Amino acid sequence: MAESPSAVSGILFVVSAPSGAGKTSLVRALLEVEQGLKLSVSYTTRAPRPGEVDGEHYHFVAGATFEAMIADGAFVEYARVFDNAYGTAEPALREVLQRGDDLVLEIDWQGARQVRERFADAVSIFVAPPSLAALEQRLQGRGQDSDAVIAGRMAKARDELSHLDEYQYLVVNDDFDVALAELRAIVAAERLRRPRQVARYQRALAEMLGPQGVEA
Question: Where, by residue number, does ATP bind (predicted)?
Fold first, then answer.
């Protein structure tokens, strides 16, 4: 069952983008400048990469543990990518949101669909590149992938872009600083929505408005 907006204190921001669009860098920068905003840490069966810390970048678990979590209904969304699996634990999401903290969840469009089914008030943001040519240039500039892998990522990017109409907000990452400012504006706007402000300032509003108060 989807949560009603009044049932969850924090805001869940769901951010999706094609590989190379700059989503991860933007979210990392956003977390550095916005207080009360945390990053959801997913579970994965893949091995840690150099520099990755368990519990910070991912919760690294064995395949059997991951399958047991699926059987227990622990994931709000999960996906299998090649030989690895990735998933978002629902209890962890709810715990953070119920504390009143806002949370950022980086997932693809398929995962975003699953999350919206359980969290109807989730705020969805799609980060797009300024053009496919720019995206391909960024992927080549990484120097991490072969031409065949880049071609595969480009094909997947076209499919991902076809789902941007499922999102509430669109940020085009042409200029990083501008895109970051737009993300911050979205966070600010969502935090200022009347129901959330009424809940936050309920006592002061009751004093100003008298017994009738104000409806959330």
Answer: 17-24
The whole-angstrom separation of Cα 110 and Cα 188 is: 26
Q: Which residues are annotated as a binding site?
A: 17-24
> Does the reported pTM lie above 0.70?
yes
- Give the position of tokens 């860098």: 25
Q: Which of 186, 130, 155, 149 is nearest to 11 (CA)?
A: 186
Is residue 95 in a domain? no
Q: What's the whole-number average pLDDT of the chain?
A: 89
Query: Residue 126: which CATH number?
Result: 3.40.50.300
**Number of domains making up the chain:** 1
Q: Which are the contacts of 156, defined by CB distance < 8 A and separation ≥ 6?
A: 18, 19
* Binding site, annotated residues for ATP: 17-24
Query: Per-residue pLDDT tens for 116-132?
Result: 999 999 999 999 999 99
